[in-house]
Amino acid sequence: MIRVAPGLRCLSLLGPRIWIRGYQTASPGLLPGDRKGNGLLNAVVKVFSTQSTPDFSMPWQNKPHEYTTGSGFISRTPVGLRILTNAHLVADTTFVQVRKHGNSERFEASVEALAHECDVAMLNVEDQKFWANSDPLVLADEIPQLQDNISVIGYPTGGENLSVTSGVVSRIEMQQYTHAATSLLAVQIDAAINSGNSGGPAVKDGWVYGIAFQNLAGADGIGFVIPTPVIHHFLDSVNSKSGYQRFCDLEVKCQDMENDHLREYYGMKAHDSGVLINKIAPLSSVSGLLKPGDVLISFDDVAIANDGTVDHPITGRINFQHLVSMKKVGEIAMLGAIRDGKKIKLTAAMAAPNYLVPIR
């Protein structure tokens, strides 16, 4: 069973969301930091999506069509100019249209790539008229700092025209992505993020630092943005020879080791730290390497604390699963562990989780 954190919800008008990314400077001689006013807003689009989701209680038919709207923006990707948006906006879609800011004409779009777990999708428009005079936004390579001022651009409920709201970065940590109930890095901001904002770019100094995708229902000033490392991971994977590869996971159940008696029982010394491995999925990439009862003390030579966190230059501490999720499928990771009171080193080829029932 997939569990969704209570109160978290995706954002769009009746269901949409969108995102954006760029690899190069917006246009010759124009740096992202120079993009102001219309030069920034012209890359943002409104997405119109008609969806027909499966009816799992009656699998021989789909549910009635739903019409939703959301936000997105034009960005330069490894395969050229594309529109990045949320997966939950265009999943199970039968018809998608996009409209540029300041333009009355809608253009038909198609879904080229979609990743449910990170809630990102990439759209293309065949009509070259749409791309004329396009000035793509550029993704930053790093995540924002705490207290950085961020502007969220999109098409939230309450009107038809583009909306810009501003706030500050208030928290950066692993969060549950409600679309697929996966946990990945997310940026919390206090800018107003309402239905329809989902998929809009979060911008600072002309650079895109993330994509708005959900908020916390019943709370004010708690919205979430997908940070650029997650978006880059998606785009790099889509451009690989093997196509999109999902985010890696050790598929283990861990227990904190903050109890002194528990630490002593498993042979940990005063200066040791780590998490206890309680269970390992049979198809996990570390099955046969790690064993239940091992204490995982490091990942890629980064020490794991007794509460399961690792040092991070911006957030201070973050769950070690972030390091795992940023690895590429097939990439080798170095694992440090304590087994029967002795320290050991292991190497494992990272892999995406093997779900018996797909997340979507």
UniProtKB/TrEMBL annotation:
Coiled-coil intervals, chain numbering: none
InterPro entries on file: PDZ_sf, Peptidase_S1_PA, Peptidase_S1C
Pfam families to which the protein is assigned, alphabetical: Trypsin_2
One term of GO molecular function: serine-type endopeptidase activity
GO BP, one annotated term: proteolysis
Stated family: Belongs to the peptidase S1C family.
Name under which the protein is recorded: PDZ domain-containing protein
Organism, scientific name: Rhodosorus marinus
Lineage of origin: Eukaryota, Rhodophyta, Stylonematophyceae, Stylonematales, Stylonemataceae
